[in-house]
Each structure stands twice: as C-alpha cells, then as structure tokens.
Write a structure and sequence with these properties.
The protein is α/β, with parallel strands linked by helices. It contains 19 helices and twelve strands. The chain has three domains: 141 residues, D-Maltodextrin-Binding Protein, domain 2 (3-Layer(aba) Sandwich), CATH 3.40.190.10; 91 residues, Periplasmic binding protein-like II (D-Maltodextrin-Binding Protein, domain 2); 206 residues, MetI-like (MetI-like fold). α1 packs across α13 and α15 packs across α17. Keywords: Amino-acid transport, Cell membrane, Membrane, Signal, Transmembrane, Transmembrane helix, Transport.
C-alpha cells in the first residue's frame, strides 16, 4: 500500500510539472510592430519552399535559393518598407505557429485566410486567387472528368490546408488522406494510393507541366475569394504592419506584377527540370549529412552528461532530487519528440529567439538525456554490491567510488545500449526538419519538390543513412571489443 501511495504521488508530481510547464510556455510573443521592423532594418518571413510556383528553391551552382511568386511579393513588401528581407524555411504546418509565437514578422506561402485561421492570426488582403483543381493520373482521365466522379474514393490533400477541408466537406463519401508534403501526395497518386490530389490550380499546373503522366481537372467548387485566395499572415495586434503590406499588395496588383512573378517562377521551374539527376543536387545532400551528423554527435554528448546527472538524481535518497528527475524522465519518454521540438522552438523561442538548428539540438539532447539516464541507471544497478563494498574498504568516498569504480564499470556494461541510442538519435533526429533545420530529410523534400522526382531522392537519403549507421555500428563494435579485451 505504501508503494502504491508513493507511485501515485510521483504521478501527480509529473502531471503537475507537465501542466505548469505547458501553461508557462503558452505566453505568445507577438511579432514586431511596423516601427520596430523599420528600426531593426529587417523583415523576417516564414515560408515552406516546396510549393511551386508560390515558393520553392532553385539550384544555382550547388547552392539553394528561395524563389517563386510569394518570394517576389515578399521582396517587394520589404522594398516598400525600406528594409532587408530575411526568409525562414519550415514546414507549412508550422507557419502560423511561427507568426503567433513571434518567431517571424509574417508568413507567406499560399495561405488561405479561412475563418478558423482568422481566430489565431490576422491576414492581409488576398493578393492572388488561382482557383482549386485536382491532379489525377492521365491513365484515369476517362474515369475522372469532374468532381462528382471522385465520390467515395480516396482523395489526397496537404494536412491543415483548405484543400483538405474542401475535400471532406464537398466530396460525398470520400476518404481524405492528409500528408505534410505535396511531393508525398503526388507519389501516393502515382502509386494509386489515392485517386486524386486536391491543390491550388497554379501548383497543379506546375506538376502537370513537368510530368507527362499527370492530368488536371477543375474542382468545380463555388467559393468565396476572400477565404480561398492567398494572403499574408500576421500576429494579432499589428494593424500598422497589415496596412503597410496591404498598400504594397494594392501596388503590386495595380501594376499587374503578379503575372510577371508567375512567369519568373516558371523560368526557375524550367531551370530545375533541365537536369534532375541526383548528382546535380549532391551539395544539398552533403549539407543535410553535415547537419544530421552535427545534431547526432552534439545531442548524444550532451545527452550522456544529462543522463548521468538524471540517473544519479533518480537514485538519490533525497526526494527533492529524485522526484524532479523521475518527472522529467517520464515526461520526455511519454511524449513524442516532435512535440518536444515544437515546444522548444516555439515555446521557449517565445522567450529566447533560438535559431532552428540550435533549438533542434537542444530538443534532441533533452530527449536523449532521458533515455540515457535509464540506460546508465540500469548499468549502475546491475553491478554487484561487492564493488561498492570493495571501494568503501579501500577508503574511497562515495563520490570517488562512483567516479572511479562504479561508473567506469557501468559504462563498460552499457556500451552496446549507448551505441544503439546514438544510432537511434541519427535516425529519429530527422523530425527536426519540421522547424526548418536543413538535415537530410529536409533536403530530401526540397529536392523532390524541385525535380518532381518521387523515388530517386528517397533512395539517395536511405543510402546515406545506411552508410552512417553501418559505419558507426562497426566503429562501436570495435571499441566494445577493445573494452572487453582490456
């Protein structure tokens, strides 16, 4: 009964810590006002560069450059404000969160100003409305000629978008399959996982133009332009900034520059598709490899240090040390790493403006520390009690015994488990791409969007991951053999 009460107390402490931490991170930091932006001399925007012709990346001499209609619009807005433009790339699903938490001044990315989104952020006037379409396989053109032909079928759409909601609401009996990336949806279409993919007409035209196996059909939706067009998103409470951007949008529309922006985007898309070999994009994969390796090495190093501290705290007889450690370990192990990364980048980022790479390393390190703590604790408890008694008989203090006797032997026993943790971090850290960290998975999605090739970039990244883990495994096995020999 006493153990049950102790367990319940630990659960209550853990839940309390989680709730308090959650409420502590809910304070939203609004984006800078117009005057602050001008004083700073920089306009920071968030976008998701995998949505041609709105925004995507072009490969110029081995380096990536953000281009597209939205990028040209953002450049004009920055020019009208008399400031420099700074672009932060991240997943589409993170754009509005970045605005709400003050990570950026505005978000632009073919964002539809729906009523639901207006509850969280403010929007500019609609700057472009290309309409809604479906992309289908050309082989199915005879079967699917209009929206009603898609009833009862599986329809693909990007998660969290207007296209996803429309497919749910306006196609009877349809099962909507949501994915984060448009290239993944196209791949699902070409492998017959879905019958059609809903997307904005300019994006559909871009894919159809660059893939002879695809065809576009009109959605037939009767929609309000003020909810379905593309607009710029801002944090609530910045009317001066919204007014300034609306002034630029009016100027752009009055001069008919949108058509020129789309034409310019088309030229860049043609550049990308002249040569879609993976060798042309080797620099993308190389940069992704470097960042993935950096995240893994630094995170495991800090994770081991944090793990030792947490393990010793958890094993302490003092509840003021053991309970916080127990709560931390349970919270981290009981929540997805993706949620932890978002919390560090957007939650902690509301207080401290952390770069995406730094936030990713911190989040993965904190996650790794919890798992390493249990590995180390297991290694310590597995040692024979005679080791502690022998150290004590030699006159060693408890601190010295832990440092010179217990931990060295524990590490020898847990080396394989630590090696597995290192390998896991290499693979699982790929989730940091959601906040725009240019790791291997991030670069994979960029190459797929630029080249319209679904399989080849995936194969390249799989090979890179395999080589990384294979070489690491062999190295760890060699060190383990040396330890056992010694």
């Amino acid at each position: 009964m006493g153990k049950m009460k102790m367990w319940l107390k630990q659960v209550l402490v853990t839940i309390t810590v989680l709730v308090v931490a959650g409420f502590g991170m809910t304070q939203v930091a609004h984006a800078d006002s117009l005057q602050k932006i001008k004083d700073k001399g920089v306009l920071t925007i968030a976008t998701s560069p995998d949505y041609p012709p709105y925004e995507f990346q072009v490969n110029q001499n081995g380096s990536s450059k953000d281009v597209g209609m939205d990028i040209d619009i953002a450049k004009q807005i920055a020019k009208d404000l008399g400031v420099k433009l700074k672009i932060k790339n991240m997943d589409f699903s993170s754009l509005l969160v970045a605005v709400e938490t003050g990570k950026v001044d505005m978000a632009i990315g073919g964002i539809n100003p729906t009523d639901e989104r207006r509850q969280s952020v403010d929007f500019s006037n609609v700057y472009y409305n290309g309409g809604q379409s479906f992309v289908i396989n050309k082989a199915d053109a005879a079967k699917y000629k209009k929206r009603s032909d898609l009833q009862g079928l599986k329809i693909g759409a990007q998660t969290g978008t207007l296209q996803y909601d429309l497919a749910q609401q306006k196609i009877s009996g349809a099962t909507v399959v949501g994915m984060d990336k448009t290239p993944n949806l196209i791949f699902a279409l070409k492998t017959n996982k879905v019958a059609a993919v809903g997307m904005e007409k300019p994006v559909a035209e871009a894919y159809v133009k660059n893939d002879k196996d695809l065809k576009m059909i009109d959605s037939g939706y009767d929609l309000d332009i003020n909810e379905t067009g593309a607009a710029v998103a801002f944090a609530k409470g910045n009317p001066d900034l919204v007014a300034a951007v609306n002034k630029s949008i009016t100027k752009i529309q009055k001069n008919g520059w949108i058509a020129g922006y789309i034409k310019n985007a088309g030229k860049h898309m043609s550049e990308n598709t002249v040569d879609t070999s993976m060798l042309r994009y080797w620099h993308y994969f190389y940069n992704g490899f470097l960042n993935t390796t950096l995240i893994a090495i630094v995170s495991v190093a800090f994770g081991i240090i944090l793990g030792i501290v947490l393990a010793l705290m958890k094993m302490s007889k003092f509840k003021l040390l053991s309970w916080p450690a127990i709560s931390y370990i349970e919270i981290v192990r009981g929540t997805p790493m993706m949620v932890q990364i978002l919390l560090v980048y957007f939650g902690l980022g509301a207080l401290i403006n952390l770069p995406a790479l730094t936030a990713g390393i911190i989040a993965v390190s904190l996650n790794s520390g919890a798992y390493v703590a249990e590995i180390i604790r297991g290694g310590i408890t597995s040692l024979d009690k005679g080791q502690k008694e022998a150290a004590k008989s030699l006159g060693l203090s408890q601190k010295d015994a832990m440092r010179f006797v217990i931990l060295p032997q524990a590490f020898k026993n847990i080396w394989p488990a630590l090696g597995n943790e290192f390998i896991s971090v290499i693979k699982e850290s790929s989730i940091v791409s959601i906040i725009g960290v240019t790791d291997l998975v991030y670069e994979l999605n960029i190459v797929r969007a630029d080249t319209y090739r679904g399989i080849a970039p995936i194969v390249v990244v799989m090979v890179i991951y395999f080589l990384m883990t294979f070489i690491l495994t062999r190295g760890l096995n060699y060190l383990e053999g040396k330890m056992n020999h010694d």
